[in-house]
Every structure is written in structure tokens, then in C-alpha cells.
């Protein structure tokens, strides 16, 4: 290689020149013509300057480069410079060539010096391939544009020039690589060439974009001139839509129909063009006005108003134009006569709000038209309408204020369109929708509608899955009979009587799915007696009106002293369900029915419930006095089976969003935005995580003078209190930035008052006269009101950032229509409405009756701050599962009255941690706060730890949430669900199963002040259990007293249990899948747990793509296996896994992985910690702890000594008790001596708990 490589120099120079010319062309177009300069232009300019500077440095040191190479490779030249000078020259060259490399963007592959040809194969050829591929990608752009767009020949030349430049680059690359091969050398000169070529790739891409922008901008500059105009207005933000050619055979209908008596013509066929915009123009005697409406949105922020001096005889021409890339295609025009000032203003408003709907799959242009004398009515609506989209089996476009939508329209493949107009004009004669697909860019269709369409959101809220018609093969009777039996499952029977023989086949709020697989059953009809026999029951019926002597069902199995027979109209024994509210309850209240009974059967009367019409709205039954519609659940002691049958009939519990399982903050208090955000920041400083921020009623106007003047209480409101929240959107955005979902309280009963911000919009939507400023009354039975309630009243607030609503209905079960419960209607439609935007729906409201489990989460009401209230809540929560209601949210800590009690509040938070939902709440009193730092140091510390634990439990809780939605297993269940034949299971109503792995025995009574211990009575079924906090081991099959300090809580895991946790000791806000996992494992029996996670997408459980991580433990081998993950998504990267073997003996040698490395162990209070290290999602890790490991025996000293140390009793008594416990004697003797002492009962129970923990089998 020598200095006379002119081909290399010239080709490199050409490449550089092309790059510089292309970039400069872009700058000219962007700055001179388009008058825009954005951040990408700045980056490009920086890159161009760097490239030029680097090349100049490279050229300035070219002489040094050739000298050094000649010395290295051997050349013909003679160099007289001393070696030291050459060395300095080489060092200088290396320094500046390094700077040049940086400035010219280092090559993808850097070539090295050497003569061997294998270097060419290793470095040169791969670089050439990469460069050619990159150029081919650039080449594809102008080729595609020329193919798609029908443009003028000058524009084609510009694009062809781009194409030719790219071809030149590819040719030069091949020439240079060929010369490299023939020369046989790979040197630094060639390496620098590759750097320039790699930089050229990015600049050529920009150069092509510049030419595309060039011909569009030139088109912009020349053609946007209003017709017949003496003035000119500028418009900003005009983007373009480039579409495929329009078929010659395709035809667009006229914009105005013949029935309007106006000029109507089809848009003429025109040569294949690219449709870019639709214009609406007004012109006539007055100065012409033109509104340009491009394919992606309105342009222009200067609105040319109509002349204020417009006369009534003014003739104005309204025209609509279709524009292609280079010319317009005239579509239609209409003359409007007798245009008044009011009509002129309306027309201006109309032009202002004409708009495009944007979505990912298509662009939909909406145009309205009407006859001249209806113009005023036509345009009588608000001019501020925003658009939003959501996808649910297609594309749904919705308005953010009062709306009237279109029905389903034909749309591109896989898309279903609902387009929404502003509030419905009453006399619209035509509505035209121009559909342009962006994915398949072709003018699809122009559709004309002559009738006002129904509301889109009402359409969405009406669509929920119901299958009310039972399979005909499951029905016995009906037809000419007045009775009808439907065998829904082997243990679920529907029995009906109708005096007129008309049976109810619509879905009720209780029964929405009667179309179930037909179970095996036999029918015997002999001597006028009908018998129906299934695997679980035997029915006998005489054919007459239902009465105890004529209709009976025998339940197969032994569930009572004699037999289990249900007779019609008997009062069934029932294990209870739940209640509508705990408002002002101070202890136990009466519960509604469940679907399980110790006798093996129970019934649900569905004769009076509401039904759903074919349009999806609620309706009343058509029934005669004495008609019967009931359901018999005959599942014996298969309680889980009975509830699953309930879910089959009434629908499953929905899948809750993960964030709903974290901590909720709520308080009835008039926060300002600054106060609320400061509180959230304080929680973050204290490392107390939350996922939901609830604002009680003071977010809206309550004590304002406008409210007082109206004579209302301010209990209902929909206008932000701007004194407290001057910028609601910013406030809500700040909460979202803190990873919090937002819930607003709504007491809807008082309707909409005239001082509300949304009163005019509601009045217009409901045709409500505002002349006397009469309020709009709440009437949820009026479908128009219901639609406006959501679409006009709630939607603007949701658009500001509200995620869901707290429906605080307290006004009973009556409405304007007898039989329609407003709470049912609110719950049902709130839940459906919240599913918009393809998110997981959630509402927060009171229980309305059987079937309410479809609308979580439940608000249990305003409870009293007492121990009695706390004592009833565990039972209340657990028995709710007997009616399938699994997601109660209580006022943790109580809401009102009562007194300050640190221990009570702490125990309530501990219960909340192991409840379906943990929501702190209190009244507006300054003394009833729930922030942990407002309590004593000990209580505050314990509260904080359990609030953190709640978020650490999210992996376990979310998996149980999945099981609830897919398997019909509620999170919290009474003990008798799993142990129906054990008498003791019915004697501990407060104790419950928490998920699949845990048993919780809540402490609901105050502690003994002398012992500083609180106790509760528990029952442990057969097996061996461990307290997950203390590590104490217990043998089951017995009742016992459990005593705990304030920081401890009785939560037991059976041998073989596996409990996954977030490994973070201090989790943050929100609900994201954890970075690291900690699992608690109890040895002693085989165990398995499938951890479920997802990315949060999907409204229904069936739509979610899960990631499942299997965790299995084998007792015989002593092996724990984790992974590999399966499913659609996996956690990016690896996770740290920590295993805590609860109660494991320390002497085990624990090995991790296939290499059998000895694990790092750490002894903790409740077991041994094993660090398994990082595990990839697709990996399987095995942890071996030795064959048949055993749980450690309790260390009596470790458990009993602290009890005695804290006890406020005489030292002598402490010593006497310790001597008994520490003696080397049989446990029976120790227990006998302890019982003989005259000591406090609570102290004796606390000590005996551990002496008897392992049972009495070895006494």
C-alpha cells in the first residue's frame, strides 16, 4: 500500500460528500422550509460535525500514517529522520488516530495490521457483508416509496437519486473490498475506510428522509390556499397520511343524500392517488373560511370567526373536499339560506370540533350533514370533546364527555370500530364516516347512517357473558306443566312453580349461567309420583303446588343423626354467608345465607331478584303471587364443591389486579393536594409501602357556599374542591408517579346539583331544562341517566387519572321501580364500566346479595373502634366464602367512636395483613389517625413491619388470587371447609385457612398487663405445624391456647408447605413482580407450589398469559426443586432465590445445584437460611438437605424463659416455675407440678403451650 492509492482517496471522498450533502439537505428543509428544529436534528448536526472533524484529523495525519505503515510492512522509501523522531511521530499518530476513531464513530469491526490473507476473511469480508446489508436496507426505502406513492416526475427523480446514491455506495464497497483482496494487505488505512462507511449508513438513512420531507413540504407550501379568500390563515401541525392506491372500481358515496333536496353526487373516480386530508370550507358573500382537517388531527390554532355582521339573507356555501397527495377531488357542496348569527356561531363551532379519530389500526374521518333548516339543532353541543381509545377484541373509540356513539362498523381485519360523536343532536338526517386504514392503507368505505345510533358505552356496559337458558336435556317438566325442575349439576337443582306456566329464562343477578353440562341423572314417573335421582340426591314430587308433604329431596350420605331430607319450605340450617354492611356494628351481627350446611343441604330463594333483559339492562320479573324460583344445593359436606357449583351458576370471582392486594391508604379527612402528597412521601421515607391511594368525599365540594345555598349536605359531589386541589390532573399524575392507583369516594344518592361543573353537560345529555336550575335527580333505573352517569359524570374524572370508584351507597334497597335495588345496579355497571381500556376491572362497594362476588372489592362499612368489632371480623370474612364472596375490605383499625388503644390498632393491622384486602381507614377526627408513627414506639414498629410484610406476601397472595379466579377457591376459608367431619373445626369460627399453605388464628382480645401476652384459642388438625414467626413446632389433632407478644402473630404452616415471598425486606410502592424471591419451606412431608406471575395485561383470567414457576419438595430425598419457568413471559435476567427451612436442624449439610456445592447457611430465629444464588428463568435448581429431614424439637428455655422474664410477678414464683421447666424429668411430671402451683391462669396457659406443643403421645 502506498500514497498513490487515488481510487481509495476518491471513493472515500465521494462517500463523505454524499453524507454531507444529504445532511445539509435535511437541515435546509427542516429549518428553511418547515421552520422546525427538533432534538433529532440536533443529534444529526452533532454527528455530522464529529464526522467531518474526525476525517480532517485523519487526513492531516495521513503522511504519518503512510510512513509508519511503510516501516512496519517494508517499503521502498528512505526515511532520514532519526528513530526518536519517528517514534514521536508514531505516538502522535496513534493518539490522534484514536481521537479520529471516536469522532468518526468506531467501525463495527476494526481491522488489524498484517500481511496474511486470513485477516481479510476474518475482518474484511464480514465488514463488507455488514456494510452491503445496511446499504440494501437503505435501498429498500426509496424503492418502497416509489412503488407505493403516485407522485410527480420531479419527485420520482428525487427518490431515484436517493436510490442511485445507495447503489453507488454498494458498488464502492465491493470495489474497495476487491482491491483489498487483490492487494493482500489489511492495514489501518482500510480500517479507517470501514469507519467512514459505517458512519455513512446513518447519514444516508437521514438523507432519504430528507427527500421524503422535501416533496411533502413543497406540496404544503404551494397548495394550502383557501378558495375565494381575501385573507390567509396559517395552520400548524398538519401531518399527512400516505395510503395505497385506490382501486379504480372503488366508489365513495356522496356526502349528502338526495333526501336533503341538495346537490348530491358521487365522488368521481379519479386516478390512483394517496388520500391525505379532508377539508370543510365555508364561503359566500362574506369572506371565505376554510377549515383543513388532515388525516391525523385538526391543524391550526387560529380560528377564523364568522363575520359578526352576518345578515339573515346571507348565502353561505359549505363544501367538503377530498385531497390527494398532489390535488383535490371535489366531493360535494350545499347552500345554507337564512343563516342567523346564532347559526353562524354554531357552524363555527361545528367546524372547530370536526375531527379525526386516531387509533393504531386505522384512521376514521367523521363528517356530519343535515338539512339547512335543522342546522341550529344540529350544532347545539359543546365544542370541547377529547377522544380516547381502548381495545377489547378490536378497537373501541370513545369520547371523554357526553357522547352518542355509532354501532359496529365494517373495519379493517381484526378491528371492530365504535366511533363516537358529541352529544346527540336530535334531528340529524345523515351521518357519514370515512374509514381509512393505516395498517392496510386504503380508503375502505364511506358509510351513511340515517338514524341516531345508541350510546357506545352503554353498548359496552351491556355486554357481559350470560348463558341463562339451561340445556333442554337437563329440564324435567315445564311446557304444559306448572312445575319445572332443572338438574344443573349432580348436586344443584333448580325448582320452579309458575301458575301461568311462564317460567323465567332470563339471567338473574344470582344465576347468569344455567347452560351447564348435563349431569347423569334418572327420571322415574310412576303412579303420579315424579322421582329425579342423581349421584348426590333423590327427589320425590307429587305434581301439585309445592308444599312440604309433596316435594322432598333426600341427600345421599350420613349428615345428621337420622337422615338428611329437605322438604319444601323448611327452614334450612345454614353455616351462614355474609351481610350487606357492618355500618355502626360493634360486634356480631346476623349473617345472610350461604350455600353450605352441616346437614348437607341448603337453598337460595331467587324468586324476587332482579333479572337482566336481552339488552343487558336490569328488569323486574313477571311473576304471579305464589310463583317459586329456588335453588337447592345438596353437596353434603363437600363445602368446596357447593361453592364451585355456585360459581358455575353465578360466575367466577374475577381476577383482581395485582396492585389491589397491596396496602391501601384511606381516611375521611379534608386533605389538600400538598398534604396528601407529603403524607405519601413520608410513608416512602418510613419505608412503608402502599399500592392504592383512596380519597374520601372531601375531594369534591362539601362546605362551599354554593353547596350551602342549594340546601344540600354536600354528601354527593362531582366537582373538585379547587381550594384543596387547584390542579387535579397534576395531583393525580403525582400519585401515579409514586406508583399508586387512585380511588375516589362517590355518594351518588343526591344526584347532580346546579353548581356542579358537569351540570350543563348532564342536563344536555338528559334533555333536562336548566331554566330554573333544578337539580338532576339520581335515578339509576333510568337507562339514559345511567349512561350519562358514567359517560358524562364519571368519564371526565377518569380521564384526569381516577382509576376506580368507591361506591358508598347507604340509602337502602329501594328505587323508583319496585324490585330494583340501586346497589345491585351500581355494582354491576360500575364493574363493567371499569373494564374499559382493556384493564382489569375493579369496583369498591357494599355487598348487595348472592352473586355479588362478581363485583369485587367489598366495602364492609363504618365499624366501631372496639375489641368487639375486631373479634367479629375474622369470622365475618371467613364465612363470606360460604356464599362465594372472597374479597372483603374492612376499615382496618376501625372507623369511628371507641378510644385510643395502641394494642387494638396493632392487632387490627396484623389481621389486615392476613386478610383479603388491607386498607387503613379512619374518621376525620384528629385523634383517630392510622399512621404508624402516631402510636407508641413498640406499636408503630410492629405496624410498620406487618405493612411491609403485606407487600412481601404479594407473590403468595397473587397466586391465591389466580386460584380463586380459575379454580374457585377463595383466599380466606373457614376451617370446616377442609375438615368438615371434625367437630373442633366448627368451634373456632375466628380461625381460618389463608390460601393453600397457612392457618391463621387471630388474636382479638387484649393482653394480660402482667404478662404482656395476649392469647387465643386455636385448633390444629392432624399433622405437624410450625409457627412461621417464632419457629415453634406443634403436633396437631388438638385444641390449645396460643399466647403471643405484641410483635408476634399466630400463623401456622403444615409440614410440606411452601410459601413464596418478596425477598426485599422493605418493598416499595406498587405491585411489580419482585426482583428476588424468598420461600419458606416446612419439611416433614412432600410439598408443591406453582408461583404465578404475569405482566398485568388482560381483563379476564382467560386472557392472561401466565408465567408459572414450579417449586417442589420431596421429603424422602430431602430435595427442593425450583423451576424452570414456563409460560408466555419470564422475568428478565436472573433472580436471587433465598430458602428458609423453617424449624430445620442446623446440623444438616445442605447442597445447592448440580455441582453439589455446599450452601452458605445462616441460622435465624425460625429456621435456617440458604442462599441458592441467582437462577435464570429457564434453569432448574436443586437444593438437597439430606434424606428424611426432621423438624427441630422446641427448646423450652428459648420459648419459656422470655415469658418469665417479661412477667410482672414475684421473682420467687418465676424461679419456682423455671425449676419445674428446667428439671430433668418427664414432661408429664413437669405438667403435674405446674398445675399444682397456685398461679395465674394466663401464665399457666402460656407455659403449658410449649410443654404440650408436641402433644401427649410421649408423656
TrEMBL record:
InterPro entries given in the database record: DUF5110 (IPR033403), GH (IPR017853), Glyco_hydro_31_C (IPR048395), Glyco_hydro_31_TIM (IPR000322), Glyco_hydro_b (IPR013780), Rhodopsin_dom_fungi (IPR049326)
Give the reaction(s) catalysed. Answer: Hydrolysis of terminal, non-reducing (1->4)-linked alpha-D-glucose residues with release of alpha-D-glucose
One annotated GO molecular function is:
alpha-1,4-glucosidase activity
Query: Under which EC number(s) is this enzyme classified?
Result: 3.2.1.20
UniProt cross-references to Pfam families, sorted A to Z? DUF5110, Fung_rhodopsin, Glyco_hydro_31_2nd, Glyco_hydro_31_3rd
Task: Indicate yes or no for the key word Transmembrane helix.
Answer: yes
UniProt keyword terms in alphabetical order: Membrane, Transmembrane, Transmembrane helix
UniProt cross-references to PANTHER family, sorted A to Z:
ALPHA-GLUCOSIDASE, ALPHA-XYLOSIDASE
Q: What is this protein called?
A: alpha-glucosidase
Species for this entry: Cudoniella acicularis
Amino acid at each position: 500500500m502506498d500514497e498513490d492509492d487515488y481510487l481509495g482517496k476518491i471513493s472515500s471522498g465521494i462517500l463523505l460528500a454524499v453524507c454531507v450533502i444529504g445532511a445539509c439537505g435535511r437541515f435546509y428543509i427542516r429549518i428553511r422550509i418547515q421552520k422546525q428544529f427538533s432534538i433529532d436534528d440536533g443529534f444529526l448536526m452533532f454527528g455530522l460535525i464529529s464526522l467531518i472533524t474526525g476525517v480532517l484529523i485523519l487526513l492531516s495525519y495521513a503522511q504519518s500514517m503512510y510512513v509508519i505503515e511503510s516501516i512496519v510492512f517494508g517499503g521502498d522509501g528512505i526515511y532520514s529522520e532519526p528513530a526518536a523522531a519517528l517514534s514521536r511521530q508514531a505516538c502522535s499518530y496513534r493518539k490522534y488516530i484514536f481521537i479520529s476513531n471516536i469522532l468518526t464513530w468506531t467501525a463495527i469491526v476494526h481491522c488489524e495490521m498484517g500481511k496474511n490473507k486470513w485477516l481479510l476473511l476474518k475482518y474484511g469480508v464480514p465488514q463488507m457483508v455488514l456494510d452491503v446489508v445496511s446499504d440494501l436496507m437503505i435501498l429498500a426505502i426509496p424503492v418502497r416509496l416509489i412503488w407505493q406513492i403516485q407522485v410527480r416526475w420531479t419527485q420520482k427523480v428525487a427518490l431515484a437519486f436517493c436510490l442511485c446514491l445507495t447503489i453507488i455506495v454498494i458498488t464502492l464497497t465491493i470495489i474497495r473490498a476487491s482491491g483489498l483482496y487483490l492487494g493482500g494487505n489489511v492495514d489501518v488505512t482500510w480500517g479507517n475506510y470501514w469507519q467512514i462507511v459505517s458512519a455513512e449508513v446513518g447519514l444516508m438513512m437521514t438523507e432519504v428522509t430528507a427527500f421524503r420531507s422535501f416533496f411533502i413540504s413543497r406540496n404544503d407550501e404551494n397548495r394550502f390556499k383557501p378558495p375565494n379568500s381575501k385573507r390567509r390563515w396559517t395552520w400548524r401541525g398538519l401531518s399527512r397520511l400516505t395510503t395505497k392506491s385506490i382501486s379504480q372500481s372503488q366508489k365513495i358515496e356522496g356526502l349528502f343524500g338526495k333526501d336533503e333536496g341538495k346537490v348530491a353526487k358521487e365522488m368521481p373516480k379519479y386516478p390512483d392517488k394517496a388520500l391525505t386530508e379532508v377539508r370543510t370550507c365555508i364561503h359566500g358573500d362574506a369572506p371565505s373560511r376554510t377549515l383543513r382537517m388532515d388525516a391525523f388531527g385538526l391543524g391550526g390554532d387560529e380560528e377564523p370567526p364568522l363575520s359578526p355582521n352576518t345578515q339573515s339573507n346571507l348565502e353561505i356555501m359549505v363544501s367538503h373536499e377530498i385531497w390527494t397527495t398532489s390535488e383535490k377531488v371535489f366531493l360535494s357542496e350545499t347552500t345554507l339560506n337564512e343563516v342567523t348569527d346564532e347559526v353562524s356561531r354554531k357552524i363555527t363551532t361545528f367546524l372547530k370540533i370536526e375531527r379525526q379519530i386516531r387509533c393504531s389500526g386505522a384512521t376514521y374521518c367523521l363528517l356530519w350533514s343535515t338539512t339547512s333548516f335543522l342546522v341550529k339543532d344540529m350544532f347545539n353541543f359543546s365544542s370541547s370533546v377529547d377522544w380516547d381509545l381502548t381495545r377489547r377484541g378490536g378497537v373501541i373509540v370513545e369520547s371523554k364527555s357526553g357522547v352518542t356513539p355509532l354501532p359496529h362498523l365494517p373495519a379493517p381485519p381484526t378491528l371492530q370500530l365504535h366511533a363516537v360523536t358529541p352529544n346527540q343532536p336530535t334531528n340529524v338526517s345523515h351521518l357519514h364516516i370515512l374509514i381509512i386504514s393505516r395498517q392496510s392503507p386504503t380508503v375502505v368505505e364511506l358509510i351513511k347512517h340515517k338514524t341516531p345510533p345508541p350510546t357506545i358505552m352503554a353498548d359496552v356496559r351491556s355486554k357481559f357473558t350470560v348463558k341463562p337458558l339451561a340445556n333442554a336435556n337437563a329440564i324435567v317438566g315445564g311446557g304444559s306443566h306448572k312445575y319445572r325442575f332443572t338438574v344443573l349439576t349432580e348436586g344443584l337443582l333448580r325448582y320452579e312453580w309458575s301458575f301461568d306456566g311462564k317460567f323465567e329464562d332470563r339471567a338473574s343477578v344470582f344465576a347468569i349461567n344455567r347452560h351447564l353440562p348435563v349431569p347423569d341423572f334418572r327420571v322415574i314417573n310412576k303412579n303420579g309420583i315424579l322421582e329425579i335421582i342423581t349421584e348426590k340426591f333423590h327427589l320425590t314430587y307429587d305434581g301439585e303446588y309445592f308444599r312440604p308433604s309433596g316435594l322432598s329431596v333426600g341427600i345421599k350420605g350420613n349428615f345428621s343423626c337420622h337422615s338428611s331430607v329437605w322438604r319444601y319450605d323448611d327452614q334450612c340450617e345454614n353455616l351462614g354467608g355474609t351481610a350487606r354492611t357492618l355500618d355502626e356494628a360493634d360486634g356480631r351481627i346476623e349473617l345472610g345465607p350461604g350455600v353450605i350446611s352441616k346437614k348437607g343441604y341448603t337453598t337460595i330463594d331467587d324468586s324476587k331478584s332482579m333479572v337482566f333483559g336481552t339488552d343487558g339492562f336490569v328488569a323486574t320479573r313477571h311473576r304471579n303471587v305464589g310463583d317459586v324460583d329456588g335453588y337447592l344445593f345438596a353437596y353434603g359436606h363437600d363445602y368446596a364443591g357447593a361453592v364451585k357449583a355456585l360459581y358455575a351458576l353465578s360466575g367466577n370471582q374475577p381476577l383482581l389486579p395485582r396492585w389491589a392486594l397491596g396496602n391501601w391508604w384511606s381516611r375521611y379527612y379534608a386533605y389538600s393536594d400538598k398534604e396528601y402528597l407529603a403524607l405519601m412521601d413520608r410513608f416512602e421515607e418510613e419505608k412503608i409501602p402502599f399500592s392504592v391511594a383512596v380519597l374520601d368525599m372531601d375531594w369534591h365540594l362539601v362546605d362551599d357556599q354554593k353547596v350551602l345555598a342549594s340546601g344540600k349536605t354536600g354528601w354527593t359531589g362531582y366537582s373538585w374542591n379547587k381550594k384543596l386541589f387547584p390542579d387535579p390532573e397534576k395531583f393525580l399524575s403525582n400519585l401515579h408517579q409514586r406508583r399508586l392507583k387512585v380511588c375516589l369516594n362517590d355518594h351518588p344518592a343526591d344526584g347532580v346539583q346546579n353548581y356542579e361543573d358537569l351540570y350543563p353537560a348532564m342536563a344536555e345529555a338528559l334533555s333536562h331544562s336548566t331554566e330554573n336550575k333544578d337539580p338532576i335527580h339520581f335515578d339509576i333505573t333510568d337507562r339514559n341517566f345511567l349512561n350519562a352517569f358514567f359517560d358524562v359524570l364519571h368519564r371526565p374524572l377518569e380521564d384526569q387519572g381516577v382509576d376506580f370508584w368507591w361506591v358508598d351507597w347507604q340509602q337502602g334497597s329501594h328505587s323508583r321501580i319496585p324490585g330494583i335495588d340501586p346497589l345491585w345496579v351500581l355494582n354491576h355497571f360500575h364493574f363493567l364500566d371499569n373494564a374499559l381500556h382493556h384493564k382489569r376491572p375493579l369496583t369498591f362497594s357494599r355487598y348487595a346479595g348472592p352473586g355479588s362476588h362478581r363485583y369485587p372489592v367489598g366495602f364492609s362499612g363504618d365499624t366501631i373502634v372496639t375489641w368487639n368489632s375486631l373479634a367479629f371480623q375474622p369470622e365475618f370474612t371467613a364465612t363470606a366464602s360460604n356464599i362465594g364472596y372472597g374479597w372483603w375490605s374492612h376499615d382496618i383499625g376501625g372507623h369511628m367512636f371507641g378510644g385510643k388503644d395502641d394494642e387494638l390498632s396493632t392487632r387490627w393491622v396484623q389481621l389486615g395483613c392476613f386478610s383479603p384486602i388491607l386498607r387503613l381507614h379512619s374518621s376525620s377526627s384528629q385523634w383517630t389517625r392510622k399512621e404508624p408513627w402516631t402510636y407508641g414506639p413498640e406499636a408503630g414498629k410492629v405496624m410498620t413491619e406487618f405493612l411491609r410484610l403485606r407487600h412481601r406476601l404479594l407473590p403468595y397472595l397473587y397466586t391465591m388470587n389466580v386460584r380463586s379466579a380459575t379454580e374457585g377457591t377463595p383466599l380466606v376459608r373457614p376451617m370446616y371447609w377442609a375438615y368438615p367431619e371434625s367437630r373442633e373445626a366448627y368451634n373456632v369460627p375466628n380461625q381460618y385457612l389463608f390460601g393453600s399453605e397457612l392457618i391463621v388464628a387471630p388474636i382479638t382480645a387484649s393482653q394480660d398487663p402482667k404478662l404482656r401476652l395476649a392469647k387465643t384459642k386455636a385448633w390444629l388438625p392432624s399433622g405437624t405445624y410450625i409457627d412461621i414467626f417464632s419457629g415453634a413446632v406443634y403436633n396437631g389433632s388438638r385444641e390449645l391456647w396460643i399466647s403471643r407478644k405484641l410483635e408476634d402473630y399466630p400463623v401456622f404452616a403444615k409440614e410440606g408447605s411452601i410459601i413464596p415471598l418478596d425477598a426485599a425486606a422493605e418493598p416499595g410502592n406498587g405491585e411489580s413482580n419482585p426482583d428476588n424471591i424468598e420461600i419458606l419451606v416446612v419439611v416433614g412431608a412432600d410439598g408443591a407450589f406453582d408461583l404465578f406471575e404475569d405482566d398485568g395485561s388482560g381483563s379476564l383470567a382467560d386472557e392472561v398469559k401466565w408465567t408459572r414457576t414450579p417449586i417442589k419438595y420431596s421429603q424422602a430425598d430431602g430435595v427442593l426443586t425450583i423451576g424452570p419457568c414456563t409460560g408466555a413471559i419470564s422475568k428478565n435476567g436472573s433472580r436471587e432465590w433465598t430458602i428458609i427451612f423453617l424449624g430445620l436442624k442446623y446440623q444438616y449439610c445442605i447442597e445447592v445445584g448440580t455441582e453439589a456445592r455446599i450452601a452458605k447457611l445462616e441460622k435465624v430465629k425460625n429456621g435456617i437460611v440458604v442462599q441458592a444464588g441467582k437462577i435464570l428463568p429457564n434453569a432448574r435448581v436443586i437444593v438437597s438437605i439430606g434424606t428424611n429431614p426432621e423438624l427441630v424439637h422446641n427448646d423450652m428455655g428459648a420459648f419459656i424463659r422470655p415469658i418469665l422474664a417479661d412477667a410482672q410477678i414475684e421473682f420467687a414464683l418465676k424461679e419456682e416455675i423455671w425449676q419445674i421447666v428446667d428439671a430433668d424429668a418427664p414432661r408429664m411430671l413437669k405438667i403435674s407440678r405446674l398445675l399444682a402451683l397456685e398461679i395465674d391462669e394466663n401464665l399457666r396457659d402460656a407455659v403449658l403451650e410449649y410443654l404440650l406443643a408436641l402433644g401427649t403421645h410421649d408423656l
